[in-house]
Each structure stands twice: as structure tokens, then as C-alpha cells.
Amino acid sequence: MVDETPTTAPENADAATDERLAVSLKYRGTSQVVAREGRADIALFGNTYRTEVRAAGKIKEPIPFREALSVLYEVVASDFRYKPKDRTAYLAYQRLKKESAGLAAWQAQQAYFDWLQRNDPNAWTVLDPVISVHPDELFFEVFSKDEGTYAKLSVDWSAFELEGELKFGTTNVDFSSVLYDGVQRMRSYRDTHLSIGGEGLAVQTVGDPHVERTVQLPMSWVRGFLQVQSAATLPRTTITIAAIDLYNLLRQLRLNADTKKGGRALRVELVPGECPRIVLEPWEQVLETKSAPYKGRIAQVVKLWGRRRLMMLRRLLPFADSVDLHLLGSGLPSFYVLRAGAFRMTLGLTGFTTANWGQSASFDLLLPRTALVTPKMEKVLGTLSKKHFASLDDLAKASKLEASDALEALQQGSQQGKVIFDIDREVYRIRPLTDEPLDLVRLEFRNNRERQAHDLLADKEAVKLVSESMVFDSGIELVGKVKVEAEKREYRPQLTLLDDGRIGHAECTCKLFRTHKLKEGPCAHLIALRVLFAQLEAKRKEGRGKARARVTVESRTYVKREAKGEQMFQLSLDKKRFSVRWGLRGQELRLQKLFFNEPGEARDAYFERVDELEAKGFLDASA
User: Which of 245, 322, 548, 559 shows its CA 20 to 30 Å from the CA of 335?
Assistant: First the structure.
């Protein structure tokens, strides 16, 4: 049951709203692991407000299943957002410590939990996984609190000795800390049985066994969940590495802490005919993978962020046969698929959290923005509902549509929470996120300021990029001009875009920024400037090599790995100015600035150097 009424009304239209989606959950009992004579039973109760599903059977390999469920729980509870120091909790803890000094251990523990529930109720909020029973597999889906990590566990039916018939569908399951503690007690020498459905197991309980609660999901969380799944439908580069390669990567991260000023990215270097290389910043540690040579036609360097989240895969890694990396591009979401026999764990990393509005605003442009239910989408979803899962070609053929039209319909269905793309099997699956349709208008934008920013961009004369300058070792400085006809005012937003897509500095001449700075979030003018620059960058990359005569501003970074280190060239064209920095990465770069009488002369010199570097085998590492 879904109640889409906002829990809090914004005080004014300009406020960054924190709308929430109230989802009612009701279970016939608490999911848990019940130990019996010589066996253990995992009882997963489904949401009675949704379509009933059923699956039961003996698990052939309990240990991989235990580790996979543990990974899911860790993803659900993970929160990688920056947390400033707050002495309030510490002082309250000190008072609690004095009050509970004479209590027994269990009483002191209960006192702490009571305090936690009063002062930090969000710590108790664990969003229940979505579970689907399909003809070929059972799969769980979760999304982290910080909106940065998506995980999907797929289990083939060959991993079970099935008992009874399967009932296909999608529901939520109660995944509490009680269930997690019980899962940790699973052992290989004890038969383990799984039961999924509304009836679960006949567990002895006192009083009413039903569990009913309402979870207030932030609309941004729902939107992020849908977006990261939709990202899987975009064009991507796929490579396969050995499990030991991922182990070596995690080991390096485990032994070295991140530095404040150093880079925090993973650079994946892809050269045709060579094994992929993974470089860890800022240590410039090069991991030569043991995978097959890269078969792509174009050499490229892809930068990935969110690498610390990969540590959540460590428990399942000993059982993995191989790891697939699906790369959408630098600074964009990436997907990691661990294959462990009948088990497959897909981890999707957005590369940013809710606090990183700069990257999230840029990512929004990759997907179509629509709240319509088109006849083509209804036709494709109707076909998919009968099959449960199918490839794009099969759906296009069955629906009698062109492949491009079918893909567009599936992307729209994915953004509306009705379909997912199973990246590890390259098929689409029917999977409604909620039992009732979502309010697509509320999901179209994160907040009112973002809506205002896109309204400004709709007027082609309202938002202008006045200047764009590359500041080496810092990023790109952008200065914009925003005319708001309704207010009869002109604003001057400025921001510095770092190499990893984050915003290093931002300011605006509007009243909101002068009053609150960025404490209340970015203003609509800053968002509009960031989105405008992302649109311009997309057009530049699309037109590279096709329309050089029209280029007046552009920046590129080229790298080449040699025995003495990684050679790097940073080229920047700014109308009549052409700047070059070069040297070994990690060392001070040499600088050359050239000034020309005409923009065309600077452009010719710029592309002459570009062609020269590409001919020498340098890789374009521009983010």
C-alpha cells in the first residue's frame, strides 16, 4: 500500500523540498532463521499488501547464500555521506554512562537502545528489500540509505531442491537485524531450507504475530533507485577480470587510507590488444589484470568513484569465479557483477551521494525525462508481463516494434519503476517497485529549485555561459549569466568544477545564496549553470573530430604509460589562447602558454598537438 501524499508541505515554492513516499508494510510474522533438529529454516515473510509470491526448497550451498545475504544487508545499512563531528551525542552518552553505572550489562544496553530510538530514529530505519520470483531465478534488490549503492542478488533455481510449486511475482520481505543475526549462524553441516511467502513458517509466537509499519521513503531515494537501474540500459563498455584482481584492489584500499588532497578515483586503462589496467589514485599503484585482452576499437581511460563501497563485496569474493565490470564513462555509474556458480551479485555504484549535486545534475541528462505512459510502453510491458523476462530483440519482435522504439519504451518503464534491466544476463524483467503506480510528476525532479533550473534552461536566452577557463591542478572555472524575466533581474552564478565532477567552489549574486550560502543547497541559477555546461560538454564530445572548425573552447588530457612513469599532457584551448602542461603524473608539470592573433590559429595549433599525441599512442583521459 502506497500513500503518495507529501508528509510535509514546503513553506515556499523555492525551498528545497524533502517530500516523502509513505509505504505501508504488513507481514504475517518476523522474518527469521529457526533452528530445529539437524536443520535450519529461513522464513521470509512477504508484504501482504502486495501480490503473494511463493518459493520453498532446500539450499544446496548454504555458505555462499549466507555471505550473499550478508552483502545485501551491509548495502542496505551503508551510508557513506560525510558526517561532521557532533558532540551532542557524546555528551548524551556521558550522561547515560553515569546514569547506568550501577545497572547490569543488559539493562545498560537497553538504556542505550532506548536513547538511540529517541534521539536517532533513522538509525533504526532499514528499507526492506524487493524480492522477485521468476521462472529462471530468485532475486533480491536493495538500495543504500545514501543513494549511492544498488545491489541485486540473483540465485538460479539450480541452487535449490525445490519443494512445491513456485508462485511468480514481486513483493517486499522483512529483512531485520534479527534475520541478519540468524543468517550468520548458518553452517555447511546443517541442512538449510528457505521459505518465501505470506505464510512463511509456523513459528511459535506470543500474541499477534503480524508486523505492520509505515516507512517514509524520501522521494530522492525512490528517484535514485529508479535512475541507477535505468542507467544499466545505457551504452557501456564491458570487461571481465579475475576474482584475484578485485582482491588485490581491495587489499590496496584496506592497507592505505584516503588522503584529503589526493585523488580518490580508480582509473581503468583500456588499450586494444592489451589486458586492462586499474590504477589507484593517489598512490599511482598499477594493477595489471589477469583478464583477456581488451577487444574494443578505441583506447580510453575511464575514471570511477565510490571505490570504498567495493569493500562490501569482500565476504562473497572467496566464492567468485570472475568479475564483470560494466563502465558507462568517467564519473558515471558503474556496475560490478560477481559470478559464483548459481549466485550472481550485481553492485551498482552511482559514483556520488545525495550531497554531490554537481554530478547528480549531470547524470540526469543521460536519461529521457518523461512522465507519460505511451501506447508503445503499454504494449511492450504487456508482452513482458506474460514472459516475465526477455531480451530486447525478442520483445521488439513480439511487440512488432522497431528495436529503438522498444528500447525507448523499456527505458521509460524502468524510470517509472515497472521494469529492470538484468545486466548480468542481458535481459529485461518485469518488476514493479511498488504495488500502486508512482507519482511520476514528483519523481521528475529532485526539488523545486531543480525544476526552476530546467524551466530557465527551456528559455534559450535565459542562461548563458559567459566564460570557461581551465585552472590547472584545480578544475574548470565557469561564470554564467541568468536572466529571470519574472523578477526582472540578472544573476551571475560562478562555480569551479573539479576533475571528479564535484563542485569545489560556488557562489551566486541571488538573495538565497547571499543569505544561506550553500547550507540550504544550491540555488536554481547554480544548478542551471551546471546543467548547461554538461549539455555543452556532451555536444563537444559528440562532435569531436567532426566539426573542428567550430571549436573555440576545449580541454583534453592525454596520458601514456612508460617505464619511468605515466606521461601526461594537458591541453587547453580558450579562443585565442592555447596552453599546454606536460610531465610525469605526480610531479610538477611544465607550462607553455601561446597567444595568437586569431582564434583559428590557436585552434589549428591545438588540434595539431592533439593529432601528434594520438599518433604517438597517447590515451585521451579527459573526464
Answer: 559
Query: How many Å is the Cα radius of gyration of the chain?
Result: 26
490 pairs with which residues across the strands? 483
Q: What is the pLDDT of residues 106-160, one digit of tens each?
A: 455 556 555 554 555 444 454 678 999 999 999 999 998 888 899 999 999 999 9
- Tens of pLDDT, residues 296-312: 888 889 989 889 999 99
- The Cα 349–Cα 466 span in angstroms is 34
Neighbours of 607 (CB within 10 A): 17
The helix-helix angle for 524-542 and 448-458 (nearest 10°) equals: 50
SS3 511: helix
- Report the predicted TM-score, pTM, of the whole model to 2 decimal places: 0.82
Domains plus CATH for the chain? 2-140+159-221 (no CATH), 237-327 (no CATH), 375-443 (1.10.10.10), 448-542 (3.10.450), 549-620 (2.20.140.10)
Task: Single out the residue of 184, 163, 148 nearest to residue 355, CA to CA.
Answer: 148
Buried b / exposed e over 556-570, threshold 16 CB at 10 Å, is: bbbbbbeeeebbbbb
What is the C-alpha separation between 375 and 380, in angstroms, rounded?
Answer: 9
Give me the half-sphere count of Cα atoms (radius 13 Å) on the Cβ side of residue 165.
Answer: 2
Phi-psi category of residue 449: left, alpha or beta, with phi > 0 → left and psi -120 to 50 → alpha:
alpha
Q: Which residue has cell 556458480?
A: 341
- How far from the centroid of its chain's Cα atoms is residue 447's Cα? 19
Query: Cell digits for 181?
Result: 543475526
Q: Identity (one letter) of the amino acid at 516? A: H
C-alpha to C-alpha distance for 32 and 138, rounded to whole angstroms: 19
Helix (H) or strand (E) holding 478: strand 475-484
Instruction: For cell 543475526, name the residue.
Output: 181
Cα–Cα distance, 19 to 7 (Å, whole number): 7
DSSP 543: T
Cβ neighbours around 616 below 10 Å, total: 11
Angle at 487 between CA 485 and CA 491, to 5 degrees: 85
Please give the distance of CA 260 from its chain centroid, rounded to a whole number: 23
